[in-house]
Each structure stands twice: as structure tokens, then as C-alpha cells.
Amino acid sequence: MGQAPEGAALSKVRRGRGRPSGSPGWKYLHISKGRLYGVRVPGRPRQSLGIVTRLQVNSPEFKRQFPDFPHRFHATVATLLGGCTVASGRQSQSPRRGSVAELIDAFRHSNDFRRVKQRGKVRSSRTLGDKALSERARYLDIIREIAGPLPVDRAKTKDLQDLVMGRWGADAESGKDAAPTAQKKAVGVLELLFDFAVDQGLLATNPASGLLRDEIPDSDGRPIWEEEAHCLPFERITAEDSPERLAYALAKFVCTRKGDLIRLTWQDLRTVTNPATGERVEAFVFTPSKTAHERNPVTVTSPLHPELERILRHHRRESVAQVGPLLLRPDGRQHDEQSFGKWFRKACDKAGLPQQYGVHGLRKTATCALIARGVSDRDIMSILGWKSPDQIKVYGDRYNRVISAIRAHKTWTAAWVTAAAA
Predict the structure, then answer these.
(1) Which of 207, 225, 253, 265 could, after both became Cys, cross-link 308 (CB 3.0–4.6 A)?
(2) In degrees, to the nearest 5, what angle opens at C-alpha 377 toward C-alphas 374 and 250?
(3) Sequence-ordered list of residues with C-beta below 8 angstroms from that of 412, at least 6 positions apart, any chain
């Protein structure tokens, strides 16, 4: 019952019984007519894997959506067979029944694993993007490593509190993730995991509810770039035809997040027509990754700013249909978020910008500039790709406080001058 060899043809699934060819271990795979994936071992109750999809089991889309399917499938078979894994013919212990490790395995195969955390009693229909999903899986792996053998029905709030503070607290042995933000994420994952246990009838209440964590320091995150102090120095040290200047202009005038910035392609640059006036303009049209997995994703249309249009002229090729990402590494490969951050940071260092100034600050700069010019909330939401005006209120309140303070001071000074003159 070894694991299917690399590249085995797993797509020959008979509808209903569902047994892919390749290795004998796959004979226990059962796919119902509704395409519900499960394991059926003779003499044992059928075990669902929590996967419902019409995708073929060896298709690229299936592998992207369920990357750990082979491992989880064989682990479930091993549990039903009594602890003997079917991977590579090795003998090893499967997760103990009723343990946190088994709960984590079941949770990772449920639809709840991909869902955005629900608020109150409303179950969200939104699903996480790849980056957030990978982060959630990382926290689950750490929890499994620390508390895997713990029986679910014996999990107490104090035990989970000790887990959080011992791994992510200020006094933790490993200082890598010892930060209030990491604690917040860990508590969120624990709440989701034990909510799932409550839904499955394993617990009556969620022991992770009400876990304490350190307070997150009040911070505005990446600071806003000021024109004189930050934008002009960066523009002086970067040539208009340089990729660093193109990245800067895209971040400042398309106002997108870093993850979407590195995914912008020449194909996203299109000619669109204004339905109200019939005017035709060039614009970037794309779907932000943050909403791409939602039922109703947002589509952002960002017309070219004159300065961005001027920068793009240096990178366009006449009479050639350009394709692929606008921003590439020096070796021609596409950036990931980490490589892009380091690359853009080098340009900021040359411009003498403080360490906390990054590309996301240019998105904040654009937001405040739009608020300053009296652009409506609805129009700002369209440009920034937001579904609600909550974030605008955060920036707007901060910005309006500055305006109000200056206006009040001028009124106060004028009254004092008038009184002194009298």
C-alpha cells in the first residue's frame, strides 16, 4: 500500500466509486456523485476528507487548492487501518484519536480552514488568499508540534493560555515570533480551531475564547511619504527610465498593495470607455488578490496619472505587444513580496529615507492626497479597491484632526492679535 509514485495517473476516477489508478493504497479513496472526497476501508465507517470539488484529482487546479491531499489521505487511511501509514511502506504512528493533532488534520480538510474568520454568529463566505492561508497553516503546524498529543476534550483555557505565552510571549525562548501581533494571530487560529471542534460536537464550549494577549502598541504602520522630505529625494536618485522609478510611480499613482504591485502586467493596461461621457482613457484594470477569492471580487480601474504615463513611456516598446509583469528582478525573474521589499529598500536607503518608510506608505500617501482634495468616499473606495469606507474614516479622521488643529490655531492667533491691537 505505498504512496502513488510521482506523476502517477490519478485522473482515471470512476464516478461514484472513485478509485484512481497507480498504487494499491488509492483503492480506499471514495468519491461520491456529489464529488465529496472520502476514505472507505472495509469494516470501518466511511471517513470524509472534507473536500467537495468537481476538479479532477490530478489536475493543476486541484493540486494548487489541496496541496497536502496525498499526505492527508494516507494519514486517514492509516488511522482507519490502525496506525500503519501507507506512505513509502514505513511504519509510523498516526495522530492519536481525539487529540489536537487529529483535530488539526480534520480542520485543514474542512471548508472552515479557508474561510475568513467569522464575526459573531455570522459565518463569512469569504475565503483567504494564498499568503494568508499559508500563514494560518504555519501557525497550525506550530500548535500541532507543541500540543498535538493533548486530548481535545481535556483542553482548558489555562493550557491554551500557557501555549500562547510560552511560544509567543515576551519571555519565550524563541524571540523570532515573540510579539503582540504574533500572539493575536495565534489566538485567532486557536479560536477557529476550537470553534470547529464545537461544531463537530467534540466540545460544548470553546476553551480558546477569551484568551489574554499582550497589547499591540498603537502604531500607524508604514508612515506617509511627504513630498518635500521623502518623495523628492527618492525621485532625485532614481532615473525616470529605471525600474525603481517605475515601481515608485506605480505604487504612488495606481495606489495598490505590494502583493498586487508585483503582479501587475502589461496586459492589465487597457483602454476603457467612460459610460457617462464616452471618453476613452488608458487605465490599469485588475482584481486585488485580497478579494480575488471572494464571491463578489472587486475590480479596480485606475486611469493613468500624467506622471505615471510619462514614466511608462521609457519602458514601452513601439509596435510590440508587451506581455508579462511590469516589474522584474535584475535576472529577469518575477519578484515575490520578499525580494521586491529588499530590492525597493535599497533604493530607499540610497535616497536616505528612514528604515520605516516603505512602498505601502505610498498607498497611504495617495489616500491622504485624495481626502485633501475632497474626493468622495465612494470614489476613493473605487481607486483603492476597498469594499467599505472604514479605512477612509481612519485616514480621514487623522488628516482632519491636523487640519482642524491648524485652523483652530490660526483663529486663536488672529483673535489674540486683534485683542492685542485693541
Answers:
(1) 253
(2) 80
(3) none
What pLDDT is attached to residue 261?
A: 93
The three three-digit cell numbers of residue 2, written as one number: 505505498
CA atoms of 375 and 386, how far apart (whole Å): 15
CA proximity to 397, closest of 362, 367, 358? 367
| pTM summary value | 0.59
Q: Which residue has the cell 494571530?
A: 185
Q: Identity (one letter) of the amino acid at 252?
A: K
Over residues 114-136, the pLDDT tens digits come to 877 765 555 666 677 667 788 88
Could you give the CA distance from residue 286 to residue 300 in angstroms, rounded to a whole number? 5
List, in sequence order, every beta strand (DSSP E) within 300-402: 300-303
CA 256 to CA 109: how far, in whole Å? 32
Residue type, 66: F
Cβ atoms < 10 Å from Cβ of 131: 12
Distances (CA, A) of 339 to 262, 344, 386: 10, 9, 26
Residue 349 identity: D
CATH number at residue 143: 1.10.150.130
Instruction: Determine how β-strand 36-39 pairs with β-strand 269-273.
Output: unpaired
Residue 161 and residue 207: Cα distance in Å, rounded?
A: 10
- Domain count for the chain: 3
Domain boundary among 94, 112, 134: 94
